[in-house]
Amino acid sequence: MSNRITSLFNIHYPIIQAGMVWCSGWKLASAVSSAGGLGIIGAGSMYPDVLWEHLRKTKKATDKPFAVNIPLLYPDTEILMDIIVKEGVKIVFTSAGNPAIWTSFLKGMGITVVHVVSNTRFAKKAEECGADAVVAEGFEAGGHNGKEETTTLCLVPMIADAVSIPVIAAGGISSGRSMLAAMALGAEGVQVGSAFAVAEESSAHPAFKEKVIKAAEGDTRMHLQKIVPVRLLRNTFEAAVAAAEAEGADPATLKALLGRARAKLGMFDGNIEEGELEIGQVSAMLNEIRPAKIILEEIWQDFLYEKEKLCRL
Asked: pLDDT at position 145, please?
């Protein structure tokens, strides 16, 4: 398949692996890229020296294009950007921040820039700033989310109508059926997070992966809207957050409850009760841990099958 997304990234399939903190290291990124998609290193959880290491290992593991995701609300952004330039990274996904801050700098370095958005206002702003594409991430997605709570089904067509640059759909996508639906809504590619978070090559702790594939419908909930909205899998920590919010906890109280490195504790260290477990609603549809290549190829083959089936109706 060839379209603006495959041409922009020079990839075979318009399937992008999300840059997830504590999950998206060099093993996952290189596996997805080698399989024909676009792998992304999630730099949000990395110190500068760790990002150096992952970039160099990715280059050794694959000769295919890959990207780096940088959440702009994280510290050390300037240092990470400097590393990206020095290491010759060709594609950067920015998220969780103002696209005006870094887009022109990156574009000036000849880097393809994609910004993750959750509303049409920021999609338009990203386009005005020179972004080459946007990721329209709906409310179903795991991790940090938009305060508007707009679902993927509504968000993708609104953004596709609002901008002229390519749109990548994200949030609730883990199969060919959901990919086909996203493309019908106006997307030219899809970003897959949760399904790759439980891939064999994901750097997430095995206990976290097992918790995810055992999740049922309704086992994730949005929390911490007073700080930064995030979708969490139910556990002891999530229950404590829910109780505090029910009592009207203010932002300071919620920040104290969250503490430091709570996501690392759960997703990377494997403390599945006290850690912050970020995952999407689609976790209820995931039921096994498999290689990233198999996940990607199954999505693509299912997409082709469902597309052909739909054409026969």
From this structure: 80
Residues paired with 136 in a beta bridge: 117, 169
Q: Is 113 helix (H, G, I), strand (E, B) or coil?
A: strand
Q: How far apart are CA 67 and CA 164, in angstroms?
A: 22
Tell me if residue 40 falls in helix, strand or coil.
strand
Examine the pLDDT at 100 and tell me if it is beyond 80.
yes
At 38 the pLDDT is 98
Q: Which is nearest to 208 in space by CA: 16, 17, 22, 40?
A: 22
**Whole-angstrom distance between the N-terminal and C-terminal Cα of the chain?**
22
Total Cβ atoms within 10 A of residue 267: 32
User: Residue 173 corresponds to which amino acid?
Assistant: I
Query: At the fourth CATH level, which superfamily is domain 4-203+283-304?
Result: Aldolase class I (3.20.20.70)
What integer is the mean pLDDT of 27-45?
A: 96
Q: Quote the pLDDT of residue 19.
A: 92
Give which of 230, 226, 228, 196 is closest to 212, Cα–Cα: 196
**In the numeric block, which tokens belong to residue 251?**
């932002």
15-33 mean pLDDT: 96
Q: What residues pair up with 94 in beta bridges, in sequence order?
A: 70, 115
Nearest to 134 by CA among 146, 125, 145, 147: 125
CATH 3.20.20.70 segments of the chain:
4-203+283-304
Query: Would the pTM of this model clear 0.85, i.e. be above it?
Result: yes
